[in-house]
Structures are given as structure tokens and as C-alpha cells.
Amino acid sequence: MTVTFQRIEARLAHEPPGIDTALAAEWLVDFLRDELQRRRGIDRAVLGLSGGIDSAVTAFLCARALGSNNVHAFRLPYATSSKSSLDDAQLVVDATGIHCRTIEITAAVDGYLQFEPDASARRRGNVMARTRMVVLFDQSAKLDALPVGTGNKTERLLGYFTWHADDAPPVNPIGDLLKTQVWALARYLGVPEQLIDKAPSADLEAGQTDEVDLGISYARADAILNFLLLGYDDVQLTARGFDVHDVRLVRRLVDATHWKRHLPTTAMLTGTAINEFYLRPVDF
């Protein structure tokens, strides 16, 4: 009995952290109402709908918080985007009843990249991500709406996002949820199973997946991140049975991308430097 208990305890120690999905959904819906309606006096939300799980969960939360008629989703495909992503995004639109419009970004992206024909795949992906954000912010101005972010905590911690693109919207309901927690919340909200079951992908090229790019599964990364955020060092993590290579990889990604999780560093010349000393109550 003791051996069995120890095995269960060891397995649970490597599981990603769970979540009270009902409580999280209720709190996040109230968060959206508070940030958009009560603090800013805005009733409409704009978001990019990629066909992935993060934007799907965000769309479901926005529909609950603001009503489906006040949520405007945009499918923003590039020439290489897969049709299945567009189809999966449509499943979210059908399930929530939110507005949806498709705007092709190929001409805008290629209009710039024609002057940079040797741009790497990473640079091209960043241009696409930032072009999508240009569209969302412009549409928010047109619709008197606020752009809502769709990035999760795992991607933010590992730096797996484009700076001043995915992280640009002023409000993000899922930014403190690890990827595995987003999946759990998706099941509670009733997101179509097809989106929950498919491999996460930035859809920048055929066959690309997040976990191949990162070199680790989200489940393994989330379990390590959970302890890392609690202050465990690498020795303590490996002592708990985590693979030493996984620990080093996660640590390296977190440390190397710390700068991406902050606003631009301001050189302070006065005692009122914005974002250093000058903060409104909402900024604390």
C-alpha cells in the first residue's frame, strides 16, 4: 500500500496544476465586464479568431461577459494559413453566435516583405502577427470596441509570442492560465472538441506545431513552470524527478525572454518617469 501511494504521489508531482473551471469562468467573465464596461465604458470586444484553443476560449468568455452581439471576431489568414484553421474558427462562431469577418492579410504582409525577400521564417511570422494586430486595433476604433488578448501564461513565460503583437491588447482574460488550464476551461465552456483535441499550432507553415517548436510538451512544461514559479531551483526540480534536460530548457526559455514580459525600459531622468513612478491606481 505504501509503495502504491508513493507511486501515485510521484506521478501527481509531475502533473500540471489543475483549476476550478466553474470558479475561473465566473471570475474571468466578471473581469471582462469590469475592465471593459465599468472601468472603460466600452461594451464591445474585438479579437482575432485563429481556429486555436486560446482564441476560442477567449471568444466564449467574451460572449458570456458582453453578449454575443457585442463580440466581433476576425479571421486574418495569410496565404499559407490552412483552411482547417478557418473552418475551426467558424465552429466557434457557430457555437457562440458572435460576429465574424474574414480579412486576408497577404497583400499587406507581402507589400512590406517584397523589400525583404531574404527574411527568415521567424521574421515573416512576426510581420504577420503584427499586421494582424494593426487590423484588430483599427477595427476596434471603427467599432468603438476594445481589443482583447488571447495569449496564455505558458506561452508568455516561454517567450513563445511576438512582442508588440500577441501581447498588445490592453486586456487579456487568459493570460494567467497555463496552457493545460486553458484546455480544462475550454471543456467546461463547451468549446468544440475538434479544437481541444488538435495539436496547437501558430499555423505559419504546414505541419508546424507549438510543442515541436518549443521542444517540450505543454503538459511537461506546465508542470515544471508551476514549481519554478513557486521558487524551486533546478536542483530541487530534478530532485522531484523532472528530467534535467526539460528543466534546463524551460529555465533557459524563461530567463532568455524576461524582457518580452515588460514594457519598454524607460531611462529615468525625473521622479515621475511613466511606468516607473507615475502610476494610476489601475496600474498597480
Tell the overall outline. globular
Poorly predicted parts: none
How much of the residues is beta strand, in percent? 5-15%
Question: Which sequence of SSEs, written as H and E, runs from N to C?
Answer: HHEHEHEHHEHHHHHHH
Question: What is the mean predicted local confidence, pLDDT?
Answer: 91
The main sheet orders its strands as 3-2-1-4
Largest sheet: 4 strands, parallel
Structural class: mainly alpha
Helix proportion: 40-55%
Whole-angstrom Rg: 20 Å
Termini separation:
50 Å
Count of DSSP helices? Answer: 13
Q: Quaternary arrangement of the chains shown? A: single chain
**Record field, number of beta strands:** 4
Give a short summary of the structure.
By secondary structure, the protein is mainly alpha-helical.
Description:
The structure is a single chain. The protein is mainly alpha-helical. It has 13 helices and four strands. It has a four-stranded parallel beta sheet with strand order 3-2-1-4, sandwiched between helices. The chain is globular. The N and C termini lie far apart (50 Å).
Notable traits:
four-stranded parallel β-sheet, single chain, globular, about 280 residues, mainly alpha, about 50% helix
SSE layout and pairing:
Layout: H1 2-13, H2 21-38, E1 44-48, H3 53-66, E2 71-75, H4 83-96, E3 99-102, H5 106-113, H6 121-143, E4 145-147, H7 153-158, H8 179-189, H9 193-197, H10 210-214, H11 218-229, H12 234-239, H13 244-256
Parallel strand pairs: 1-2, 1-4, 2-3
Helix pairs in contact: 2-3, 2-8, 3-4, 3-8, 5-6, 11-13
